[in-house]
Specification:
Number of domains of chain B: 2
Number of strands of chain A: 5
CATH architecture of the largest domain in chain B: Alpha-Beta Complex
Helix content of chain A: 25-40%
CATH architecture of the largest domain in chain A: Orthogonal Bundle
Order of helices and strands of chain A: HHHHHHEEHEHEE
Low-confidence stretches of chain A: none
Distance between the termini of chain B: 48 Å
Radius of gyration of chain B: 22 Å
Largest interface: A-B, 91 and 81 residues
Number of domains of chain A: 2
Order of helices and strands of chain B: HHHHHHEEHHHHEEHH
Largest sheet of chain B: 2 strands, parallel
Distance between the termini of chain A: 25 Å
CATH class of the largest domain in chain A: Mainly Alpha
Structural class of chain B: mainly alpha
Shape of chain B: globular
Number of helices of chain A: 8
Low-confidence stretches of chain B: 1-32
Oligomer: heterodimer
Shape of chain A: globular
Structural class of chain A: alpha+beta
Mean pLDDT of chain B: 86
Strand order of the largest sheet of chain A: 4-3-2-1-5
Number of helices of chain B: 12
Strand content of chain A: 15-25%
Largest sheet of chain A: 5 strands, antiparallel
Mean pLDDT of chain A: 93
CATH class of the largest domain in chain B: Alpha Beta
């Protein structure tokens, strides 16, 4: 979806504001929603891509108005309802319905500690052949998916060079919509700054993106 | 919002906070959305605990991990080790997850880490234009500026301008490589070891390495200079 989250290349966002000695969380509630977010993700009703898409669905004005962890709060409320962990009525009331069944077992501290050590599946899979190889010129496809995608607008239609094959990963455009992982190779693709931004960009600079097979075509 | 929720939120606020302004129901009945995220988070946590999805102690552990245990000091130790041990550096640049695990740090987000080496004529800079992807396992949670619209939008189109705002001036002949974290790879910069540090211990070197240098918005300054 061509949304406001896809920010690369915008120029009207002002200076970067750097806070000295910044705390990890600026308020206790930020830490709590961070923990709730992690805990609910561990339950496994939605994946990271689906979570990101839910953030992208925030109305543009809300997206800009909200702080980072306000967005997390909003999407966790929405996902918990959407995936029927809680009902809208329960969320409104802040208490469980009287006929609500209790989930067992709860995510305990011991389980949470164990889950931290869990990695994602190996990116090595000989059964999924690569469509491109290192050193090859490629073009990022000019596509405008209306769902979730990780191909930023600023790279679409641009020519780049494959510099590394990272192995096999789930494809966000299907995974976010729970339509399967459609695992495929992800490559580091280098785009010259001038290819992306024109002659006023430095001739020496470049931008590297990690792109799936389905985002690329032969050039 | 119906009155049930408003009543609950007001009660939660009274219990949670000394700041009573939001709990003065009559003056704020026109508000359609609760303005205080602290109250909503408290309500959500109570509900999830009551329904048996989470144990509050699990949330305590999750928060404690990133508030107190995992942060840029982890990355700084990785960088210092690479500065003093060339064999380690080689492993770090070719297989970062294994080399980082040698120091006891495991991945928090389940992603694959890649280390990028800065040099006199090459400068790497990390961004996530689409959201906020960041190497949690070695740097902890990202600072607000990294997640800001200003940084996300401009790092790719105006990296030199962004670097100047961090006080980092690069010569025209330095190549800038910006890494937009669009997939599940997570990047960390191996900054240049500053001059004048030949006699420092690994632990002393680790003290010098800053988070900003590992994101690539600044360099590690020589001893005696402030970052």
């Amino acid at each position: 979806m061509n949304g406001v989250h896809d920010m690369g290349g915008l120029q009207d966002m002002g200076p970067v504001r750097h806070e000295r000695d910044e705390p990890v969380f600026h308020a206790a509630w930020e830490g709590r929603i961070y923990g709730i977010d992690r805990a609910l993700r561990f339950i496994g009703k939605w994946n990271l891509d689906a979570w990101r898409y839910q953030i992208e669905l925030l109305p543009p004005a809300d997206y800009f108005r909200m702080t980072y962890y306000e967005r997390w709060l909003q999407v966790n409320e929405q996902l918990a309802v959407k995936h029927e962990l809680v009902t809208p009525k329960e969320l409104e009331a802040g208490a469980a319905d009287s006929d609500s069944t209790k989930a067992t077992p709860a995510l305990t501290a011991a389980v949470a500690a164990h889950l931290f050590g869990r990695g994602i599946p190996s990116s090595h899979d000989p059964n999924v052949p690569p469509q491109f190889e290192v050193g090859q010129r490629v073009r990022a496809r000019n596509i405008n998916p209306t769902g979730h995608t990780r191909l930023p607008r600023y790279a679409r239609g641009k020519l780049g060079l494959v510099t590394r094959d990272h192995g096999v990963y789930a494809f966000p455009d299907t995974n976010a919509h729970l339509q399967g992982e459609k695992r495929q190779h992800v490559y580091s693709v280098r785009f010259a700054a001038r290819e992306l931004w024109g002659v006023n960009a430095s001739a020496r600079d470049s931008v590297h993106l990690d792109l799936w097979d389905d985002y690329l075509e032969h050039a | 919002m119906d009155s049930t929720r408003r009543t609950f939120l007001a009660a939660a606020g009274t219990a949670a906070s000394q700041n009573m302004a939001h709990a003065q129901g009559h003056d704020h009945d026109h508000q359609a959305v609760p303005s205080d995220p602290a109250l909503r988070v408290k309500a959500l946590e109570s509900l999830l605990v009551e329904k048996g999805f989470v144990d509050p102690a699990a949330l305590d552990l999750l928060v404690d991990r990133y508030e107190n245990k995992v942060g840029p000091r982890n990355g700084a130790r990785v960088v210092a080790r690479a500065w003093v041990d060339s064999a380690y550096k080689k492993r770090l640049l070719t297989d970062a997850p294994s080399a980082i695990a040698e120091l006891g740090y495991t991945s928090g987000q389940g992603e694959h880490t890649v280390v990028l080496e800065n040099g006199p004529k090459i400068h790497n800079l990390i961004v996530c234009t689409l959201c906020s992807c960041y190497p949690w396992a070695v740097l902890g949670l990202p600072p607000v500026w990294y997640k800001s619209a200003a940084y996300r939008s401009r790092a790719v189109i105006d990296p030199r301008g962004v670097l100047r705002e961090f006080g980092t001036q690069l010569d025209e002949d330095v190549e800038i490589h910006v890494w937009d974290s669009t997939a599940e790879l997570r990047y960390i910069v191996l900054p240049e070891r500053p001059a004048g540090t030949e006699n420092l211990s690994e632990a002393e070197l680790a003290e010098m390495v800053t988070r900003d240098a590992m994101v690539g918005v600044s360099k590690v300054p020589p001893p005696g200079e402030k970052a």
